[in-house]
Structure of YcjX family protein:
Amino acid sequence: MKPQLIECEPRAHADSADTKNQSRPRLKDKLRRWGREAQDKSHWAAERLMDRRVCVGVTGLSGAGKSTLLTSLIYQLSHPQKSQLPGFAPALNGDLLGAELRPALDSGLPPFDYEGCLAALLANPPRWPQSTRDASAMELHIHLRSRRRFRGEGTRTLILELRDYPGEWLMDLPLLRMDYTEWCRHQAHLIGTDTRSTLAPQLIAKLAALSPQADSGEVDLMALWGEYRSFLLDCRAQCKLSYLQPGRALLKDEDYGVLPLLDLRGLDSAQLAALPETCVYKVLQSYYNAYVQTQVRPFVESHFHHLDRQLVLVDMIGTLFAGEQALEDMRLAFAHIADTFHYGESGLISKLWRPRVNRLLFAATKVDQVLAADHDVLRQLLGQQLQQTFSDARLRGLPVFSEAIAAVRCSREGQRNGRRLLMGHDLGGHYLGFENAEIFAQLPYEDQGWQHYEGAAPPQLRPPLGMESGHVPHIRVDALLNLLLGDKV
Ligand SMILES: Nc1nc2c(ncn2[C@@H]2O[C@H](COP(=O)(O)OP(=O)(O)OP(=O)(O)O)[C@@H](O)[C@H]2O)c(=O)[nH]1
Ligand SMILES: [Mg+2]
């Protein structure tokens, strides 16, 4: 340390005249930037207060259809002549003039890759957008004709703030409310209650046998972390589970080392706190705390603290056909996630410093995979599943809606031998006709009932050809827009 100090000091003196001269423009730059930021902030605040800015939180597990819906929404709203949004009031009466995508003020996030996602959908052959790997933000400025009684016709702009992110990150929201010990107990409980323990019995036995007091230098924690990541990936691939933590373990090959100790019995919190810093418990606790502080907290603060509306997307078809356990796990995931949000009406001031979600929408996605006759049942099933979960919203009397949508309709419905069937291209590009297993309004009560869905999932479809002409077909995206923004347009 000392030699460094002796070297630095004289240089600092020699440069001081120069630095003074340079610091003036730098200070000016800074003041200018602060001025601009303050102006932006006050614009932002004024727009919120005047209801010209709405922040919509799109909430959905990985593969729920977030990025595809965002792309379809932006496309439909930006091309009012070509889109088909009869259920969205401004489009119906000719007041929707168009929309443009702008970077999100102050978000510090890269812009949503709309061009990339749209290019994939419009390619020949068409493709789905890539699964999202990082967070992004955007503002959609929706231009509307306004008709005021005394001031005649004019235009106004409604700004929609939107974010996209990998669905896996959502699984980490509950970590904000748990310390490491609570999280370990939570994981031990989960492993003990569902089939995940059968996937990696050896790993689970190792974690259960790992003593919190052991010296961390004598245990290869990173090798265990590698095994734990593979276990989480298997839970998703083989059991279609979604409530898997830490969520980022499913995405990147990064060494977070966030492992649960499965047996903390016999040690109370005071004894755990008194353990030496080098023991396994303390080292894993520090990894966990670092993960929560550097990964989870910034994500939650930037994505969910200013929400006015929440749109929860669920691949209800995929979950239902994956079976009882997958459905139960989806419900569990949302039950833990829902606690993160603040629901209720926002007053004038709280609109700025602590906004609340004042409208909640559930949407079953990709319903073009089943016959139109089943869409309503899906909508109802989703509502039933999630209404209890988002009980805080219900208790506060929030308007809650449920819809069944397809951001991009990939099938057509036809008839053969008097039976309705769907036609579309599978992911390999083969044209097929199929009939889906009927979806019942009530969930099965027992295993036998679940057999109806087992192995009967409808095929995954490729986006349709011909969208480059400007027409992106969808199912009820207009109705969704009306529920989401009908009172603001
Ligand atoms: N048939 C049909 N399939 C869809 C539709 N939207 C999405 N999909 C399918 O669902 C997959 C996932 O969609 P995404 O939009 O990437 O889902 P996401 O929620 O952004 O997923 P992550 O980025 O992994 O969090 C796509 O690759 C398609 O296979 C739709 O409207 N219809
Ligand atoms: Mg995505």
The chain has three domains: 2-48, 51-168+311-485, 174-301. The first strand starts at residue 53 and ends at 60. The chain has a mean pLDDT of 87.
